[in-house]
Design a protein that fits this description.
Helix content is 23%, strand content 28%. By secondary structure, it is α/β, with parallel strands linked by helices. The chain has a domain at 5-116 and 181-229: 3-Layer(aba) Sandwich (Rossmann fold). A hairpin with a 2-residue loop joins strand 8 and strand 9 (191-196). Helix 3 crosses helix 7 (209-222) and helix 5 (82-94) packs across helix 6. Bound molecules: zinc ion (ZN). Residues 102-103, 154, 200 line the site of zinc ion.
Length: 257
């Protein structure tokens, strides 16, 4: 039994099977590279789950054993079953961490947690990206330095239709001139959500050790501090004695005099 923060790396895992260029970069899938990369840094026990497994690999037992879920999806967001999305959302609100990568900005789970369209501008011409670290004191940027440079990436540009992040960690600049909020943190219920932009499937982004370090740091940041199951109880027995009110009190237009 591996010890440490229990991380489940979820991947749609379709491009790697169908597209030769992607297969060359990630022969066993992006999820395997991410899982091995973060585990190597210590204190993390990573498992993987993919879309085509029963229940997308996210059974109740797996979710119960997951502290932080990492999500990569792109071409098959619509194939993710709504009932699984609901379960993941519930788990996040109860305390599980969620890290959404790259094209996961359009996943059902990210949209459900953000409540906005999550749309953006994009262009794929293998341009350079520089991710500026704008929160050097934040746990997610430890060991990263001033910036991360990626020689070839897909561009994502503003405006990114997200709710105002609780914390903004990285801002990207692209060779073509656009900028993008590439590292964003939110609190949702008792859980923490981190969106991290890099990761287009045809570039070796998850072989970059700075990118893996950010994801690893984010796992530690998003690890649950508490799990609380949601309830909405009717408290019929108050702690203090409440003075009796007239039966009509609280009805429209009636004020106790
Ligand atoms: Zn992409």
């Amino acid at each position: 039994m591996k010890s440490g923060i229990k991380v489940t790396v979820w991947n749609e895992f379709r491009h790697e099977k169908k597209n030769e260029a992607v297969k060359r970069v990630y022969p066993d899938g992006m999820h395997k590279v991410i899982a091995a990369g973060i585990e190597k840094l210590g204190g993390v026990a990573a498992r993987t789950a993919t879309l085509d497994e029963p229940e997308h690999g996210l059974t109740d037992a797996v979710l119960k054993e997951t502290d932080v879920l990492i999500w990569w999806g792109h071409a098959a967001h619509s194939e993710v079953k709504d009932e699984i999305v609901k379960k993941v959302q519930k788990r996040v609100l109860e305390g599980m961490g969620l890290i959404v990568l790259h094209s996961g900005h359009f996943s059902k789970i990210f949209k459900a947690l953000m409540g906005t369209n999550c749309s953006l501008k994009w262009r794929e011409v293998a341009e350079k990206e520089r991710l500026w670290n704008v929160a050097p004191a934040h746990p997610i940027t430890q060991g990263i330095g001033d910036y991360i440079e990626l020689p070839n990436t897909e561009m994502y540009g503003e405006r990114f239709d997200i709710p105002e992040p609780d914390e903004l960690i990285f801002i990207s600049w692209f060779e073509g001139g656009e900028v993008f909020r590439s590292g964003c943190c939110w609190n949702r219920g008792h859980g923490r959500v981190f969106y991290f932009r890099p990761g287009h499937e045809t570039y070796p982004i998850y072989h970059n050790q700075q990118i893996i370090k950010v994801i690893y740091n984010a796992c530690k940041w998003a690890a649950p501090r508490i799990f609380i199951e949601d309830k909405c109880p009717n408290i019929n027995t108050p702690l203090e004695k409440i003075a009796p009110k007239s039966a009509d009190f609280g009805k429209a237009g009636i004020v106790q005099g």
